[in-house]
Amino acid sequence: MKSLIVSIALIALVAFAAPLAVAEVTSGTTVVSTSVNGPVTLVTWDWASDSAGRVVKSSPGIVGTVDQIQVSSISGTTAPTNAFDITLLDTDGHDVAQGLLGNLSTASVLRFHPYMKGSMTDQITTTALPVKIPVTGALQLRVLNAGDAKEGKVRVWLKE
Amino acid sequence: MKKILAFTFVLALLAFALPYAGAQATSGTVTVTTSVNGPLTLLTYSWTSDASGNVQKASPGVVGTIEKIETIPGAGTDAPTASYDILLRDTDGYDVSLGLLGNRSASAIEVVYPYEKGQFASGGLLAALPVKPLVTGAITLRLTAAGAANTGKVRIWLKN
Predict the structure, then answer these.
(1) Domain residue spans of chain B
(2) Burial class (CB in 10 A: 0-12, 13-18, 19+), A7
(3) In chain A, domain spans
(4) Which of A37, A54, A69, B30 could bond A112 through an S-S bridge, CB–CB 3.0 to 4.6 Å?
(5) Pairwise CA distance, residues A92 & A137, whole Å
């Protein structure tokens, strides 16, 4: 009887604690959508920054290699401050955009194709061996220095 | 009775609102067709310019990498003005033809194969690593300086 009570208490504890453990501290207001078309998954963040010019928002879990990233905003009063910064962090905190989304211009729609460098065991030079970045899990959008209540869009295409 | 009235009101509201929600600015007269053959999608815009020499029309949603783009000017008195310009914009306004369709010939069929460059973390562009632009969504044809009431075709091959 005692062990039964202990078991129930543990289950109850886990049931209450688990949602709190995975809760994400978000900044700004962001709508995240995903669409899958055959081998292509498109993740879109429509973001609005908080008063400190920040955005933090995770996508649902996704699977694929990063094929293309596009950053856009509408010119006018809601356009982010020039030279704002974006990172796209996987669940280990690795920026799958490879640092390419720093100091972004708001003047136009920007397109990126990030690659890592492959490593060969025989120490041959590696610069000619580009590797696409795999993702299995949520991607967290982080925007910094965008200004107060600014808006923009980030789209990431992944391929199976 | 109240429910029927409410339902009718909602239907009427939708009937009026939907055309405006999907409304898109168009110029000239354009017929857009798509044909899918296995992994290949062929998108064809058959256009006639307006009195200002402009054309604008969005395609239905398409998915794939751009393999090839062909521009075909009309013949004889229907031929567009020499050096007319074309943009193919995605839903963010990014030109997926990468600026290659400026100054089109008024008489010759022309073909382009657009590629972007992959990037490592250092930000260095990989001239030796061509990447085909990926599209998921509508592509808007925007054509300018073609002369009044002239004709032509734009064909885009995409691979999924």
Answers:
(1) 25-159
(2) exposed
(3) 27-159
(4) A69
(5) 10
| C-alpha separations of A139 from A14, B105, B153 in Å | 26, 45, 41
Chain A residues within 8 Å of chain B (Cβ atoms): 35, 37-40, 42, 67-68, 70, 72, 98-100, 109, 111-117, 128, 130, 153, 155, 157
Mean pLDDT across A142-158: 97
Higher pLDDT, A25 or B81: B81
Q: Cα distance from A98 to chain B (closest Cα, Å)? A: 5
Confidence of residue B14 (pLDDT cuts 50, 70, 90): very low
CATH no. for A27-159: 2.60.120
Distance from CA of A107 to the nearest CA of B (A): 12
The pLDDT value recorded for residue B118 is 86
Identify the pLDDT of residue B128. 58
**Please, which residues have CB within 8 angstroms of residue A127's CB and are 6 or more apart in sequence?**
A117
Q: What is the pLDDT of residue A21?
A: 44
- Asked whether the beta carbons of residue B94 and residue A70 sit closer than 8 angstroms, the reply is yes
Contacts of A68 in chain B (CB under 8 A): 131, 133-134
CATH of range B25-159; options 3.90.550, 2.60.120, 3.40.50, 3.20.20: 2.60.120
CA distance B155 to chain A (A): 22
CB atoms A70 and B92 under 8 Å: yes
Residue B2: strand, helix, or coil = helix
Q: Using an 8 Å Cβ cutoff, are A79 and A107 in contact?
A: no
Contact check, Cβ <8 Å, B136/A40 = yes
Residue type, A25: V
pLDDT of residue A120: 62
Does pLDDT of A1 surpass 80?
no
Question: Residue A74 above 90 pLDDT?
Answer: no
